[in-house]
Write a structure and sequence with these properties.
By secondary structure, the chain is mainly alpha-helical. Helix content is about 75%, strand content about 0%.
Length: about 170
């Protein structure tokens, strides 16, 4: 590989990580129990992706490759941890946090977003789940930045008034 090709590969990969990193980190956070583990998981997946970068010819397949690398890496971690647990007759007294509230909250938020009108739902997903800028969303949807801003504002206002989210906020 020539120096120019190598530099181009590094630059392209760097642009990809800069652009998609926040969305991929959210995916990693859904697979782990804390932010530090999520960052480590994403970093490990990005290293694997970098070494396979030349083989990923379709730019639309890159996110899928990184996500699959994260899932496979996390599964390996879960298996490794499972081997560290040994049965014993003594059950230690420990307070264990119930992580189900995270998935419950996620379900409530997803249902609330699903109740939004189609354009509001699309813009909320692109802005907050795909981490796109208002300009990128406007370009993607063929609307003005002002339309994106006003639609986000209306969508967030509806979400603030959503009964299920109000109840969820009151219980947390």
């Amino acid at each position: 590989m020539t120096g120019t090709t190598r530099h181009s590969r590094y630059a392209e990969f760097s642009r990809y990580v800069t652009e998609r990193g926040p969305a991929l980190l959210r995916m990693a956070q859904s697979l782990t129990t804390n932010p530090a583990d999520a960052e480590d998981l994403l970093q490990a997946a990005l290293v694997k992706t970098f070494f396979a970068w030349e083989r990923i010819t379709n730019p639309n397949a890159r996110d899928g490759y990184v996500r699959r690398a994260m899932v496979n890496t996390q599964i390996s971690e879960w298996r490794r941890r499972r081997l560290e647990v040994y049965p014993t007759d003594d059950v230690p007294e420990q307070r264990i946090d119930d992580p189900t509230w995270k998935s419950d909250l996620s379900d409530v938020v997803h249902r609330a977003i699903d109740r939004l009108p189609e354009r509001q739902r699309a813009i909320v997903v692109l802005r907050y789940y795909e981490d796109m800028s208002e300009a990128q969303i406007a370009d993607r949807l063929g609307v003005t930045v002002g339309t994106v801003k006003s639609t986000i504002s209306r969508a967030v206002a509806k979400l603030r008034r959503d009964a299920d989210l109000i109840i969820e906020r009151a219980t947390t």
